[in-house]
Amino acid sequence: MSNLFIQKGNILDYLNAGPDLAVNTILTIGALLGITMDTIPSGQVGAVGVDGVWSLPKLSTDVMAVGDVVDWDASTGEFNSNIGVPATGDITNGATVVEAAGSGDTTVKVKINAPFGTLN
C-alpha cells in the first residue's frame, strides 16, 4: 500500500482561527466549500465535509434544474444560478444540482465541489 496516501478526503480537519462555528456552518476554504460536521470552537480543529450531496440554502427566486452548475454567494449565504459579477469570497461553479428546485424553494440538493469551484 502506498505510504503517500493520507485519507479519502471527503472530510477534512479544519483549524478554526475565527469565532466558534456551529454544526452545519457553510465555509469557504480557498476554492472549496465545506460544511462543519459538529461544533468547532475557536482555536480548535474539527471535521468539515467537502464532498457529497447536501441540502443547502438557495436564492428563493431561482429555478434550478438537475445538472445545473451553481455559484455560492458568500454575502447572502446561498446558492445562485446566475451570480453575475462575483464578489470577493464567492465561489463560482462550486456545486452541481442533483434534484430540481423551483421558485419559492429555499434549499437545493447539490453535490458540492463538483465541478471544482473558483474562488473570487
Keyword list:
single chain; 120 residues; mainly beta; six-stranded antiparallel beta sheet; four-stranded antiparallel beta sheet; 10 strands; globular
What features would you describe in this structure?
This protein is mostly beta strands and 120 residues long. It has two domains: 11-49, no CATH class; 53-119, no CATH class. It is built from no helices and ten strands. It has strands at residues 11-15, 26-29, 32-36, 45-49, 53-57, 69-73, 78-80, 91-99, 107-112, 118-119. Strands 5, 6, 7, 8, 9 and 10 form a six-stranded antiparallel sheet that branches. The radius of gyration is 15 Å and the shape is globular. 22% of the residues are buried.
List the helices and strands and how they pair.
Blueprint: E1 11-15, E2 26-29, E3 32-36, E4 45-49, E5 53-57, E6 69-73, E7 78-80, E8 91-99, E9 107-112, E10 118-119
Antiparallel strand pairs: 1-4, 2-3, 3-4, 5-9, 6-7, 6-8, 8-9, 8-10
Overall number of strands: 10
Number of domains: 2
The global form is globular
Any low-confidence stretches, pLDDT <50, length ≥5? none
Q: What is the gyration radius calculated from CA atoms?
A: 15 Å
Task: Return the string of H and E elements.
Answer: EEEEEEEEEE
Structure at a glance:
By secondary structure, the protein is an all-beta fold.
